[in-house]
Amino acid sequence: MSAQPARSPRTVLNLHPAAGRAPTAQRMIFGATLRKHREACSLKEKDAAEHLNGCSASKISRMEGGVHDFKEADVLRLFALYGITDDEERARLLGMCRLANKKAWWEGYLDVAPKELQTYTSLEEIAQRIRCYESGQLFGLVQTSDYTRALVQANMPDAAPSVIDKIVEFREMRAHRFAEESTTELVYVLDEVTLSRGFGGRKVMLRQIIRLLELFDHPRITFRLIPSRGNDIPVQMGTSAIFDFAEDQLPPIVYVEGLIGGLYLQDEDSVDTWVKSFDRLQIAAHHRQACKKKLAEYAMTYR
């Protein structure tokens, strides 16, 4: 039986420029699989490090955390240490290793995609489901290009037009891949304030709301709406997303957005806190038809 990745013992993944490569979903999956095999052998990171020609335990930690590329020579030595001798299993794991090392489609956008966005993009492409809430702006995967451009210009007033163009292009690619090529389910709790306090003016907001109405019947998207008025609405979770994966890939991961970057929460207690908060938010939100009606009302106000 193949090893399944254990829940990561790491509590917070904070991506800073000096922290090496951004962890991608495929590297995290393979790293978690290696960790599971190591722990099944009752070995510590330093034990594995000694077997790799005396490298540091921190290298093993980075490999298992998905922030380090995998050399096949190192991986084969770990297979020997962990007693992975079955030819089919070794071939399967080497396939995972090569996939983890493969360049992603967004490599050409690294100049406009910070590390937390690189990781985010990889997670959204492999997740079975994304549960998200944003209060300051619309969720990236449902934005029109005009809305994205206005949003970026508002947040980055000094950015060169070429930089803004590339950011818009990158988000367009993400949205296209999600809508046309992905199997990921999206559960989006929309905050009404993002409709009344928009970006880009009336025409931009009208096109954006029409786009939301077009996506309303998408088979993989579920919309809910938090009203702008009301008491005791549990919005304290703030802008965040919960990524759910297949059982043989990764445990759930939470992304929490902050002013100067994002945090990825991986430990069970933190994830459970966000899942419960999101459940409360869904209960407080208007359901499908009420949400669609409110979108239609806003479309009329922008005409």
Task: Walk me through the topology.
Blueprint: E1 12-14, H1 25-40, H2 45-51, H3 57-65, H4 72-81, H5 87-101, H6 115-126, E2 129-134, H7 145-155, H8 161-181, E3 185-191, H9 193-196, H10 202-215, E4 221-226, E5 240-244, E6 253-258, E7 261-265, H11 268-284, H12 288-302
Parallel strand pairs: 2-3, 3-4
Antiparallel strand pairs: 1-7, 2-5, 5-6, 6-7
Helix pairs in contact: 1-3, 1-5, 2-3, 7-8, 10-12
Please tell me about this protein's structure.
The chain is of the alpha/beta class and 303 residues long. The chain has a seven-stranded mixed sheet with strand order 1-7-6-5-2-3-4, with helices on both faces. Strand 6 and strand 7 form a beta hairpin. The termini are far apart. The N terminus is likely disordered.
